[in-house]
Each structure stands twice: as structure tokens, then as C-alpha cells.
Amino acid sequence: MAKSGNWIGAKVLGTLAIETQGLVKRFGRQVAVNRLDLKVPQQSVFGFLGPNGAGKSTTMRMLLGLTTPDEGRISIFGRDLKSNRIATLSEIGATIEAPALYDHASGWLNVDLTRRLRGLKRAETDRVLEVVGLTPVGAKRVSGYSMGMRQRLALARALLGEPKLLILDEPTNGLDPEGIEDMRALLSDLPHQTGVTVFVSSHLLSEVEHVATSVGLIYEGRLILQGEVRSLLSAQTRIVFQVNNPEQAKHIVLARGVADVIANADTIDMLVEQDRSGIAAINRALVEGGLEVSAVSVQLNTLEKLYRDTLSSCSQWAPL
Ligand SMILES: Nc1ncnc2c1ncn2[C@@H]1O[C@H](COP(=O)(O)OP(=O)(O)O)[C@@H](O)[C@H]1O
Ligand SMILES: [Mg+2]
Predict the structure, then answer these.
(1) Which of 46, 174, 249, 268 is at a distance of 20 to 30 A from 100, taking alpha carbons?
(2) Is any ligand 1 atom within 6 A of the Cβ of residue 27?
(3) pTM of the predicted model over 0.90
């Protein structure tokens, strides 16, 4: 398995939206966040995943300057958070807990109160309500809003002032499947629409797997895996070639350095760390070796499987 915290994916170029080095937070003797080295690329939707109690909220609170780390460093867009606190935090929008809303007031007013406190232009309220799709119900009281509408309202508030970074702690918590779908669509559109980077946590992989471009898995305070979704998933691809001579095909593939190859009655079956061009190269080698390839099936790894496999290998770790 990759060393904890190593980035898996294209070399990260340029300034990261979030970078932490050796971040630690203790509560008494408990290490809630344990030497976290996060790398969040700009304009990514970064899914911060882990079971309840893993340390997600504590990490996010540190990123927002709400809790002081015991050790380590945080830089946001290349600036040290500690020494550039005000300027840095002004570029971040966040929903950190269950949204606190004024139920008796309209959705519009809920956002507008924050807008006024922040000294932003009035048009900002209308803009953010539009982004989250609440313009038609902006005049209605929040008491009549569904959970999904409340979460979107909280997101609207976080979008005030056009932040460069959004930190969203479990924004799909408590939503029904339709609400989750709406939130997903919204989050995956945001980086294209506004150039924002979205750092979003969830304890349920399924809620972010289709929107995240990068993920980090945290377990018992440790970051056990992080990288681009595309690279993480191509790290183990199962490929089946249907061929006229599986034994001969197996030799050709073994000679290319693929270790796990099984020859079946009319197929060979292998696990490879290859991207598309690597798969094409294996295909070409088979054909050039004189074999007839009549079908290729590529079963891409799923994040779900990666998540389960990684967590189960971690639960066998000895405690620190
Ligand atoms: N203020 C606190 N005081 C004591 N322990 C805390 C506090 N906040 C969080 N913890 C503990 O730290 C661990 C990580 O919690 P948290 O960051 O909330 O996890 P997650 O958000 O992933 O569910 C948990 O064991 C939790 O009980
Ligand atoms: Mg939490």
C-alpha cells in the first residue's frame, strides 16, 4: 500500500488550495488528527472521507482557524494560515455544522443578514440564491423549507463574497436521495462556474464519489490515502482479453511484466496498473504475437472497493 499521505495522481503543479504538513490535534490523550499531510489541488472537488469520529470536522475546524493545531502547518493558496489569518479566512466560505437558520425569516433574509454583516453589495444575496437554485422560493419562510433547501441555503451563505475555497462539512447529512442528487450536481458545477475549490467531507463515500475529482481517506486521525480519483481508480484495473490461445497470450503478457495473469478456457484475466494507453499496448502485443483478440473487457476499480479495501487493511494496523 502507498505510504500514508502520499499523493497518488498527476504531479501536483503550482500552488495548492490547501496544504497541511504534519497537522496534529489532541484532545487529552486522544490524537484526533494525526500528522496529516493534505494536498488539495486548486479547482478540485476534494472529497474528504472517513467514518464518524475519524477526525474530519476537527481538521476542517483547524483549516478555518476555529481550533488551533497542536503541531503542524496549514497553508491556504500558498499562504501560511497562522501569519495571514484575516486575509486567508476572507477567501474561504464554509458550512461547518448543521446550518443555524432563522426559521421565521425568509430564505432571502437569512442570506441577506450575513451579507450585511460582511459589508457586501446587496446584489450578492440575489446572486448566491441564484447559484443554489433558491431564487423562486427566496421570499418563503425557512420554516417551510425541506432539509435539502436548508442545506442549499447554508451553501448560498457560504458563497457570499465569492470565496476561492469552500469548506463544507457533511453538506449531504440528513438529505433524502433527491436532495443528495441536487447537492451533488451543484457541487460538481461550482468549480467550472466560479473557479472555486471545494473541500467537502462525508462519512458516506457514495455521496461524493461522483462529484469528487480528488479524495482523501481519513481513518482514526490518519490520512491513509489521497490523490486524484482517476489515478486512484486506474491503479488497479481488471482486464479480460478474449483470445484464441489463452496460454500463449498469458506468456506474452507475463513477458510484459504483468504479474497477475490467469489463463481461462478462452480468455486471459489480469489485474494491472495501467491507464488506457497501457491497455492498448497489451492489446497490440497480443495481436503482434499472432493472437486473435475477439473481445476486451475493462472493469475499472470503484472508489467503493478502494475505500473498503483500504479501511480493512488499516483496521489490521497495530495502534501507535
Ligand atoms: N472538542 C472535543 N473534545 C474532545 N474530543 C473531541 C472534540 N472534538 C472531537 N473530538 C473527538 O475527536 C475525534 C474526531 O472527531 P471529529 O473530528 O468530529 O470526527 P468526524 O468529523 O470525522 O466524525 C472523535 O473521537 C471525537 O470524539
Ligand atoms: Mg464531523
Answers:
(1) 46
(2) yes
(3) no
